[in-house]
Amino acid sequence: MPTSLLTVDQVAGRLHVSRWTVYNLIRSRQLASLTVGRCRRITEAAVDAYISLRTEQEAA
Questions:
Q1: Residues spanned by the domain of 49
Q2: Boundaries of each Helix-turn-helix domain copy (predicted)?
């Protein structure tokens, strides 16, 4: 199954946060990412996992 890679700007748009917030999530290892050349990319699965984790934490 092919995995879509998203840019930091695309993830920021999906989460309705700033680019800075996305980079902070990556830096704190709350959001998994990978580097392609000099570009940072995030899989859709990583975004979904982050949302699921935060939803579970908020419900607890």
A1: 5-59
A2: 5-51
- Say which CATH number the domain at 55 has: 1.10.1660
C-beta separation of 40 from 8 below 8 A: yes
What's the half-sphere exposure (Cβ side, CA atoms, 13 Å) at 49? 11
**pTM of the predicted model as reported, rounded to 2 decimal places:** 0.89
List the pLDDT tens digit at each of the 60 positions of the chain. Answer: 567 999 999 999 999 999 999 999 999 999 999 999 999 999 999 999 999 999 999 998
One-letter amino acid of 58: E
Q: What is the number of structural domains in the chain?
A: 1
How many residues make up the chain in this entry? 60
